[in-house]
Structures are given as C-alpha cells and as structure tokens.
Design brief:
Layout (H helix, E strand, L loop, with lengths): L2 E6 L3 H4 L5 H17 L3 E6 L16 H6 L25 E4 L10 H8 L3 E7 L1 H14 L3 E10 L3 H14 L3 E3 L1 H7 L2
Parallel strand pairs: 1-2, 1-4, 2-3, 4-5, 5-6
Helix pairs in contact: 5-6
Length: 186
C-alpha cells in the first residue's frame, strides 16, 4: 500500500484568509510528518489561464467568480500560489485544477497512479468544497481515503462537523486527527 498526502487549496487567496491559521498549522504538521516518513505530498491549487477560457458562462460556481476575478485567479498570480508555510520543496508535485474537485481538469489521477498511490490522506480548505468533492471522486476511483479533520477547514464550522463526523465516515472514509494519524504510522 502506497500513501500520498493531498494538500488542497492551501493557496494564498484561500488559506491566507483570516480564520484559517489553525488549519494551515495543522496541515504543516501533516506535511512535516509525511516528509519525515517518505509519504509523497501532492499540492493542489485552483487557477486559470488569462481570460478564463476554462470557465463556461453557464458554470454557476465559477462563471460569476471568473467574471469578477480580474487576474486574481490566474495561474501565475500570488493569490493562487501555495502558502509559504506549506511551500513545496524540490520536485514535490503541484497540481493545478480547474474546478472544485482536485481531479477536475487536472492530471492528479495520472500523477497518483505514477506514484503507485492507492491510499490518499486529505487536507484542505474548504471541507464543503475541495475536500468533499475530492473524497467523492477518489472513492469512485477506488482509492482508500483518510481525512485529517483538523487539517481541513470550512467557513461554516457546523458544515465541517457534519461532514467529518457523519457524511465522510458513512461513505467509508476514515476521519482522524493529525495526532492519531501520526500515531498510526508507528
């Protein structure tokens, strides 16, 4: 069994907003542990080309955002870069996605298959966005899944609680804390 750590949407324009500091710190602990244990981290961020050609006007989730985003969501904009606290090192892969799920519009599945990963440990902002969407798609792709509850954050704490305490476990997803995850590694 090969595990990969997915660090999703920990980019300046999302994770850099006030209130997500504890989530970023928790993700930093998970990242340090993964690096120490030889678990490959994979960084996922959402970004687009100039002019947002990937976003159809009919896409209600991204169409309105893209129309008013200016250059804030462009692939080279500082807002779309991984936060400094979690800065990728060397050849650690960064995947750029085009929708909510980490798999949508990206090469994530190909990358994970290349790594031989069959188990994913997920951390991200927001629990109700990238984490939920990625969990659903990854389950359909037959990955074993663990969500690090304290390394996920949502603007709505109740939504985070319901997802991590009820929805994810009912879907066969292991939900744990970083401390429990580290202890499980021996």
């Amino acid at each position: 069994m090969t595990t990969a750590l997915l660090l999703m949407d920990f980019q300046n324009g999302i994770a850099g907003r006030p209130g997500f500091e504890p989530t970023v710190e928790a993700a930093a602990r998970a990242l340090a542990t993964a690096r120490d244990r030889g678990i490959p981290p994979v960084f996922v961020r959402v970004a687009f080309r100039p002019g947002y050609p990937e976003v159809a006007a009919s896409n209600l989730a991204f169409g309105v955002r893209a129309a008013g985003a200016g250059d804030a969501m462009l692939v080279d904009n500082p807002a779309t870069q991984v936060v400094d606290r979690l800065a990728p090192r060397g050849q650690e892969p960064i995947v750029v996605k085009k929708r909510v799920s980490a798999f949508a519009g990206s090469d994530l599945e190909v990358l994970l298959r290349g790594l031989g990963a069959d188990e994913l440990v997920l951390a991200g902002i927001a629990t109700s966005g990238v984490v939920l969407s990625t969990v659903r798609q990854a389950a359909d792709l037959d990955f074993r899944l663990t969500v690090l509850a304290d390394a996920c954050g949502d603007a709505d704490p109740e939504v985070h609680r319901v997802l991590t305490e009820k929805v994810f476990p009912r879907g066969g997803v292991t939900v744990t804390s970083i401390a429990e995850f580290i202890a499980s590694l021996g």
